[in-house]
Amino acid sequence: MEPIPIAIGTNCFVTKFTQSTACLCPLYRLTPYLRYGYMKKRTVWLSIGMILLVLVSCKKKETYWDINMLTPLVQGELTILDMLPDSLTEVNADESLTLVYQDELLSYNFADENISIPDTLITTFVSLDSLSLDDRTIVQSITLGDVAIALGFPVGTFIILSNGSEAAIDPIADLSSGEQPIDATSFFQTATIQTGFLDIKVDNGFPIPLENINLTIRNSMDGATIVDEYVAYIGPGETFTSTTPLDGMTVEGNLIAEITDFSSPGSGGELVLIDTSDALVITMTAYDLELLAATAVFPAQDLIDNHNNIVYNMGGPEFTQMKIKSGEVTMYVINTIQDSIHIEYSIPGATDQYGVPVYINPVVPPAPEGGSVVYDQAFPLDNFTIDLRGANGTSYNTFYNEFKASIDSTGNVVSISLEDSVEVQYGLRDIIPSELKGYFGQTDFSVSDTVGGLSFFESITGGNLTLTDCDVLLHIENGVGVEGDFTINQLTAVNSRTGQTVNLYAPGIVNAPIPVNRATNNPFIPGQNILELTPDNSNILDVLGILPDKLIYDINMQVNPNGNEFNYQDFFIEASRINFFIDMEIPMEFIASDLVLEKQVETKFNELSNREDIKSGTFTLHVDNGFPFSAGIAMTFYDRNQEELTTVNFSNPIAAGTLDGECKVSSPTYSELSAIIDENTMMDILRSGTALVTATFNTESAEGCSDAVKIYSDYSIDFQLTADFTYTLNIGN
């Protein structure tokens, strides 16, 4: 037997039928469609009676099924809070509503965007030509006894035997002192000298004059002659001096001094005291030595000693003080010298919160033989304050610093050549200021942006409002200690859902310089200017009427238009911002033109029994409208994954609420709308989990009331959706 479609109304009660599954007697044909709720009562009971009579007569076996009474399938309420967020609405004394909204359009960090502190790195290269050896003096004595021994018998023996007595000394010829070692290793082991001098002083402590003296000083290893000096005559007690350039010479630490040939006229027959300890004293003084290479014990000395002002090129601003939010002193050293490098770096005018200045004193290790060592460190300057007035306190963008690199005398012998060097790079890097003081110069800057996500009409997805009044304030807040002229070049409202745009027109406000006072400090108080937009001085109602969700602005600020009138007292601190925000109060009294409001609600189709048997039906929307608008209603159904399934449009609008003598809705207006749902559409709807209820409002004028209506806090629309379904039930074979 084929299935029999039976229409079951949504408001019927639960009914249980007992049905035979036997074959129907051919004498009877059942009416294929029984529309419960559309037939006359008598016809309905007659049809049901015929079904029972036939089925009982053909009964073989009993089968049971239920037909449920259906509750409303969709129900909900649209209130003013679906139109306006609760946090933005203010209820007036008469229960009417005012939209109160504030939003920040711009928060501009003047220093971040306009001030950049450049890195200030100084590189110094020091090679061996900056190293030196101390002036040194070596004294070598040749005694009369040494000469006597060298002379031998008989003259030398006579001198020795006469020690302590007076005697006449005969003339002497072809004398020699012999080789006398000179130990200069405490000075250097070897040194190749670029420039320098050696002074020779010969003091004659003998009791007789000396003539035709040939003095030589040579290296003990390679025999190279350092000094070769001829002295014609030195009387007793007299001194001879000479200077020998050492340019280009290599001098060893072990030297040999020798008077290779000299003579004496003797005492001239006079008796003289013979004292073998009397000496010919040779004094050698090396000085002004600039080295090409040396193996020596180097004295403590400064390689670098810089005291200078570092000047920032700021391109206009003239800062006298800066507090550092973050940044560092960087120190990078490459050392090829086999000695430790002691570094002292200080910025006397840079102090921490306790007044302690920057002082850095690292030690760079000595380099290995033939190699180098690298020292690379950074020292944070966070929260340090730097005086930027230079060493004399009268400059700007300038800080004074001192850098010294030196070696200490360790007593160790090290080898250094001209190729050895110390390369140093030091200075301030990655400086971000948290505070600045001085003169910020004369400059212009522009800021343009699009501010999205305006929330005051975000639930209204379409249409227009014709507002009657509003009070809009544009706040310009200057948190920087500079004078400025602020110009709003453009302010455009955008409704991205509809594509509508409206430019703000406000003579004297848009495209007009607006002076904004400087901020003050201690305590910090931003300067500000408040611009009021009203329907009388602008087209602000048109701007708001398109229900904007974005604002496009283009703003310009001229800094210090009158120059340095505050004498280096401009300032910036961390709290300094240039802010631009909007503050609105909009009475909710307007004309609605195709104003679209949406609300998501849950459906109850999952509560239906035998959903698979539902083929089509009629939806009935019951509405109590408490708004002073007529409204068109549509429902869009979505599955559990929020995928759109289908949309049902109710062709007739619902009537506006009834207005009383005060033009306020006194009672909701009931409307009942119907829509016939075909089988394909029904299949989509039965799979839904939610529905988007879309109401399109239009203001309805009423006698004695203006076209614009006020909105009150208790306005709402209540709705519920019921249905008459057509079931197809299989009742057996």
- What is the count of distinct domains? 5
Spans of at least 5 consecutive residues with low confidence: 1-69
Helix content: under 10%
Number of helices: 7
DSSP strand (E) fraction? over 45%
Structural commentary:
It contains 7 helices and 50 strands. It is mainly beta. It folds into 5 domains: 4-67, no CATH class; 98-114 and 446-587, Jelly Rolls, CATH 2.60.120; 136-296, Sandwich (Jelly Rolls); 302-338 and 352-410 and 424-439, no CATH class; 592-729, Sandwich (Hypothetical Protein Tm1070, Chain: A), CATH 2.60.290. A hairpin with a 5-residue loop joins strand 43 (629-638) and strand 44. It starts with a strand and ends with a strand. The model is unreliable at 1-69 (pLDDT under 50).
Structure characteristics:
54% strand; mainly beta; Jelly Rolls; 5 domains; six-stranded mixed β-sheet; disordered N terminus; 733 residues
Summarize the structure.
This protein is mainly beta and 733 residues long. The strands form 10 sheets. Strands 8, 21, 22, 23, 24, 25, 26, 27, 28, 30 and 39 form an 11-stranded antiparallel beta sheet that branches. Strands 1, 3, 5, 42, 47 and 50 form a 6-stranded mixed beta sheet that branches. Strands 9, 13, 16, 17, 20 and 29 form a 6-stranded antiparallel beta sheet that branches.
Write the layout of secondary structure elements.
Layout: E1 4-8, E2 15-20, E3 34-35, H1 41-57, E4 62-67, E5 74-79, H2 80-83, E6 89-91, E7 97-108, H3 110-114, E8 120-127, E9 136-143, H4 144-151, H5 155-161, E10 166-168, E11 172-175, E12 180-183, E13 190-204, E14 210-219, E15 225-234, E16 239-245, E17 250-252, E18 254-264, E19 271-273, E20 279-296, E21 301-311, E22 318-335, E23 341-351, E24 357-360, E25 363-364, E26 373-380, E27 385-387, E28 398-407, E29 414-417, E30 421-439, E31 443-451, E32 460-467, E33 471-478, E34 484-495, E35 500-503, E36 514-516, E37 527-533, H6 540-545, E38 550-559, E39 570-572, E40 578-587, E41 589-602, E42 614-625, E43 629-638, E44 644-654, E45 658-659, E46 665-667, E47 669-677, H7 679-686, E48 690-699, E49 709-710, E50 716-729
Parallel strand pairs: 1-3
Antiparallel strand pairs: 1-50, 2-4, 5-50, 6-7, 7-40, 8-30, 9-20, 10-19, 11-18, 12-18, 13-16, 13-17, 13-20, 14-15, 14-18, 20-29, 21-28, 22-26, 22-27, 22-30, 23-24, 23-25, 23-27, 23-28, 30-39, 31-38, 32-41, 33-37, 33-40, 34-35, 34-36, 34-38, 41-48, 41-49, 42-47, 42-50, 43-44, 43-48, 45-46
Helix pairs in contact: 4-5
